[in-house]
Amino acid sequence: MPQFNELGIKVVAANADGEGDTGSTASQHGISFPVAHSVGPEVSAALGAWKGERQGRGYMQPAEFVLRPTGEIAASLYASTQLGRMDPLEVLRFIKARM
Question: Which member of 39, 41, 79, 85 has the greatest number of CB atoms within 10 A?
């Protein structure tokens, strides 16, 4: 989103899937920001998002974070469905009001 770029805000994503699946999903949805792949239990557990194994694969609960420039978490949201996810425009309002 251009509004994020204008404010110098960086958007990144992380995924438990491998490089191929992550890259193809990012391409399919036109994602232009960096997406890390193969995130394992150590990293996702440190974020409070590791849910364990399911069907022989690691499972990371979807989680969203807004970080301050210092790296401190300013806001977080954990949601296993599409409901309750952070809305980009609401995130912009939050950042403008609180950071």
Answer: 39
Tens of pLDDT, residues 22-67: 999 999 999 999 999 998 889 988 998 888 777 777 678 889 999 9
Tally of domains in the chain: 1
Q: What CATH number has the domain bearing residue 20? A: 3.40.30.10
Containing structural domain, residue 83: 2-98
Would the CA dihedral through 79, 45, 31, 69 be positive or negative? positive
The token pair at 13 is 């994503």
Element (H, E) at 92: helix 88-98
**CB contact burial 18-40 (16+ within 10 A = b; e otherwise):** eeeebeeebeeeeeeeebebebe
Give the span between the Cα atoms of 76 and 68, in whole angstroms. Answer: 12
User: What CA dihedral angle connects 96, 89, 49 and 22, to 10 degrees?
Assistant: -120
